[in-house]
Design a protein that fits this description.
Blueprint (H helix, E strand, L loop, with lengths): L1 H24 L1 H20 L3 H31 L5 H40 L1
Helix pairs in contact: 2-3, 2-4, 3-4
Bound molecules: adenosine-5'-triphosphate.
Length: 126
Protein backbone atom coordinates (compact mmCIF):
# COMPACT_ATOMS: atom_id res chain seq x y z
CA UNK A 1 0.00 0.00 0.00
CA UNK A 2 2.82 2.37 0.90
CA UNK A 3 4.46 1.61 -2.46
CA UNK A 4 1.14 2.43 -4.22
CA UNK A 5 0.95 5.89 -2.60
CA UNK A 6 4.67 6.47 -3.11
CA UNK A 7 4.26 5.74 -6.86
CA UNK A 8 1.26 8.10 -7.14
CA UNK A 9 3.19 10.78 -5.23
CA UNK A 10 6.14 10.37 -7.61
CA UNK A 11 3.83 10.57 -10.67
CA UNK A 12 2.49 13.94 -9.46
CA UNK A 13 6.02 15.10 -8.65
CA UNK A 14 7.21 14.27 -12.19
CA UNK A 15 4.14 15.92 -13.74
CA UNK A 16 4.75 19.13 -11.74
CA UNK A 17 8.41 18.96 -12.79
CA UNK A 18 7.16 18.90 -16.42
CA UNK A 19 4.96 21.97 -15.82
CA UNK A 20 7.85 23.78 -14.16
CA UNK A 21 10.20 22.86 -17.01
CA UNK A 22 7.71 24.15 -19.64
CA UNK A 23 7.33 27.43 -17.73
CA UNK A 24 11.07 27.92 -17.27
CA UNK A 25 12.30 26.90 -20.72
CA UNK A 26 9.48 28.03 -23.04
CA UNK A 27 8.96 31.77 -23.65
CA UNK A 28 5.70 30.93 -25.50
CA UNK A 29 4.40 29.14 -22.40
CA UNK A 30 5.09 32.22 -20.27
CA UNK A 31 3.27 34.35 -22.86
CA UNK A 32 0.24 32.01 -22.68
CA UNK A 33 0.24 32.29 -18.87
CA UNK A 34 0.49 36.10 -19.07
CA UNK A 35 -2.45 36.23 -21.50
CA UNK A 36 -4.43 33.85 -19.26
CA UNK A 37 -3.84 36.16 -16.28
CA UNK A 38 -5.14 39.05 -18.44
CA UNK A 39 -8.25 37.03 -19.33
CA UNK A 40 -8.90 36.19 -15.65
CA UNK A 41 -8.54 39.86 -14.65
CA UNK A 42 -10.91 40.90 -17.49
CA UNK A 43 -13.33 38.13 -16.43
CA UNK A 44 -13.54 39.54 -12.88
CA UNK A 45 -13.76 43.15 -14.11
CA UNK A 46 -16.64 42.41 -16.49
CA UNK A 47 -18.30 39.90 -14.13
CA UNK A 48 -18.63 37.12 -16.72
CA UNK A 49 -21.15 34.33 -16.02
CA UNK A 50 -20.29 30.84 -14.70
CA UNK A 51 -20.81 29.33 -18.18
CA UNK A 52 -18.48 31.94 -19.71
CA UNK A 53 -15.85 31.16 -17.02
CA UNK A 54 -16.09 27.46 -17.94
CA UNK A 55 -15.53 28.27 -21.63
CA UNK A 56 -12.61 30.62 -20.88
CA UNK A 57 -10.94 28.17 -18.47
CA UNK A 58 -11.46 25.33 -20.98
CA UNK A 59 -9.81 27.37 -23.76
CA UNK A 60 -6.87 28.29 -21.53
CA UNK A 61 -6.43 24.62 -20.58
CA UNK A 62 -6.46 23.51 -24.23
CA UNK A 63 -3.83 26.16 -25.17
CA UNK A 64 -1.58 25.22 -22.20
CA UNK A 65 -1.95 21.55 -23.07
CA UNK A 66 -1.13 22.13 -26.76
CA UNK A 67 1.97 24.18 -25.84
CA UNK A 68 3.23 21.52 -23.42
CA UNK A 69 2.67 18.72 -25.97
CA UNK A 70 4.43 20.90 -28.58
CA UNK A 71 7.43 21.23 -26.25
CA UNK A 72 7.43 17.49 -25.56
CA UNK A 73 7.32 16.68 -29.30
CA UNK A 74 10.12 19.18 -30.05
CA UNK A 75 12.23 17.64 -27.31
CA UNK A 76 11.77 14.09 -28.60
CA UNK A 77 12.42 15.20 -32.21
CA UNK A 78 15.64 16.94 -31.11
CA UNK A 79 16.66 13.72 -29.35
CA UNK A 80 15.99 11.30 -32.21
CA UNK A 81 16.79 13.63 -35.12
CA UNK A 82 19.32 16.30 -34.14
CA UNK A 83 20.33 16.60 -37.82
CA UNK A 84 18.10 18.09 -40.51
CA UNK A 85 15.38 15.70 -41.71
CA UNK A 86 12.17 16.61 -43.58
CA UNK A 87 10.11 14.36 -41.27
CA UNK A 88 11.60 16.00 -38.16
CA UNK A 89 10.64 19.38 -39.59
CA UNK A 90 7.14 18.13 -40.45
CA UNK A 91 6.61 16.78 -36.91
CA UNK A 92 7.66 20.12 -35.38
CA UNK A 93 5.53 22.12 -37.84
CA UNK A 94 2.49 19.94 -37.03
CA UNK A 95 3.00 20.36 -33.28
CA UNK A 96 3.36 24.14 -33.72
CA UNK A 97 0.23 24.12 -35.93
CA UNK A 98 -1.72 22.47 -33.10
CA UNK A 99 -0.77 25.33 -30.75
CA UNK A 100 -1.74 27.91 -33.36
CA UNK A 101 -5.14 26.22 -33.96
CA UNK A 102 -5.86 26.13 -30.20
CA UNK A 103 -4.77 29.77 -29.77
CA UNK A 104 -6.95 30.97 -32.69
CA UNK A 105 -10.00 29.12 -31.29
CA UNK A 106 -9.33 30.57 -27.82
CA UNK A 107 -9.05 34.08 -29.28
CA UNK A 108 -12.37 33.63 -31.13
CA UNK A 109 -14.11 32.40 -27.94
CA UNK A 110 -12.57 35.33 -26.01
CA UNK A 111 -13.85 37.84 -28.57
CA UNK A 112 -17.36 36.30 -28.59
CA UNK A 113 -17.50 36.52 -24.77
CA UNK A 114 -15.83 39.89 -24.14
CA UNK A 115 -16.92 42.03 -27.12
CA UNK A 116 -20.56 42.39 -25.91
CA UNK A 117 -19.28 43.48 -22.45
CA UNK A 118 -16.90 45.99 -24.07
CA UNK A 119 -19.66 47.34 -26.36
CA UNK A 120 -22.11 47.75 -23.46
CA UNK A 121 -19.41 49.51 -21.41
CA UNK A 122 -18.71 51.88 -24.32
CA UNK A 123 -22.47 52.47 -24.82
CA UNK A 124 -22.86 53.38 -21.13
CA UNK A 125 -20.21 56.07 -21.46
CA UNK A 126 -21.55 57.52 -24.74
N1 LIG B 1 15.79 18.55 -37.26
C1 LIG B 1 15.08 19.31 -38.11
N2 LIG B 1 14.90 18.93 -39.38
C2 LIG B 1 14.18 19.69 -40.24
N3 LIG B 1 13.57 20.86 -39.92
C3 LIG B 1 13.70 21.28 -38.65
C4 LIG B 1 14.46 20.55 -37.68
N4 LIG B 1 14.40 21.24 -36.51
C5 LIG B 1 13.65 22.31 -36.74
N5 LIG B 1 13.21 22.35 -38.01
C6 LIG B 1 12.35 23.40 -38.63
O1 LIG B 1 12.53 24.63 -37.95
C7 LIG B 1 11.31 25.02 -37.29
C8 LIG B 1 11.63 25.63 -35.94
O2 LIG B 1 12.17 24.62 -35.11
P1 LIG B 1 12.67 24.88 -33.65
O3 LIG B 1 13.19 23.64 -33.06
O4 LIG B 1 13.57 26.06 -33.65
O5 LIG B 1 11.34 25.23 -32.91
P2 LIG B 1 10.88 26.65 -32.42
O6 LIG B 1 10.15 27.36 -33.53
O7 LIG B 1 12.04 27.30 -31.77
O8 LIG B 1 9.82 26.23 -31.34
P3 LIG B 1 9.52 27.00 -30.01
O9 LIG B 1 9.68 28.46 -30.32
O10 LIG B 1 8.10 26.59 -29.70
O11 LIG B 1 10.52 26.46 -29.04
C9 LIG B 1 10.47 23.75 -37.19
O12 LIG B 1 9.09 24.03 -37.11
C10 LIG B 1 10.86 23.03 -38.48
O13 LIG B 1 10.16 23.56 -39.59
Amino acid sequence: METYFKKRYNSFKFAFRGLNSALRSEPHMRLHVLLAVGVVVAGFLFGVTATEWCLLVGCMGVVFMAEIFNTAIETVVNLVSPDFHPLAGKAKDLAAGAVLAAAIMAAVVGLIIFLPYVFSLVNNYL
